[in-house]
Amino acid sequence: EEPSTASEFHAFIGRYNQMRRNLVAINCLECNQRLPGGNQWIDGYIDGYISRPDYGTHYNTCYGCLKHYCYECKIDGEWQLEDCRTCDRHYCVNCT
User: Fold this and answer.
1) For strand 34-35 and strand 46-47, is the pairing parallel, antiparallel, or unpaired?
2) Alpha helices in the chain (DSSP H)
3) Which residues, at least 6 apart from 39, have a Cβ–Cβ distance to it below 8 Å?
């Protein structure tokens, strides 16, 4: 089923992102950069009938341990957060 701006899930994404913006800032555990960069914790982008592949994905968060990292940090030459090629979720180097 294609994402819709009229869905309850889409409304939840909007409320969740607003709630996160109203809370104390969260910083990357590696470099201390404020997160998220685009002010959205969950991708809720829909333009007409087009949604990004990341629609509904929680940004800057490891799906394994729920710790927050930016996408620019590398540890020992490896990205701190990477996409799983099977499920498209983001995992930190400690949980992959």
Assistant:
1) unpaired
2) 8-22
3) 17, 21
pTM: 0.73
What would the mean pLDDT of 38-47 be, rounded to a whole number? 76
- Residue 44 is which amino acid? G
CB under 8 Å to 46, separation ≥6 — which residues? Answer: 3, 4, 5, 10, 55
Cβ neighbors of 20 (< 8 A, separation 6 or more) are 41
Distances (CA, A) of 11 to 50, 52, 58, 61, 78: 17, 17, 15, 21, 35
Confidence of residue 51 (pLDDT cuts 50, 70, 90): low
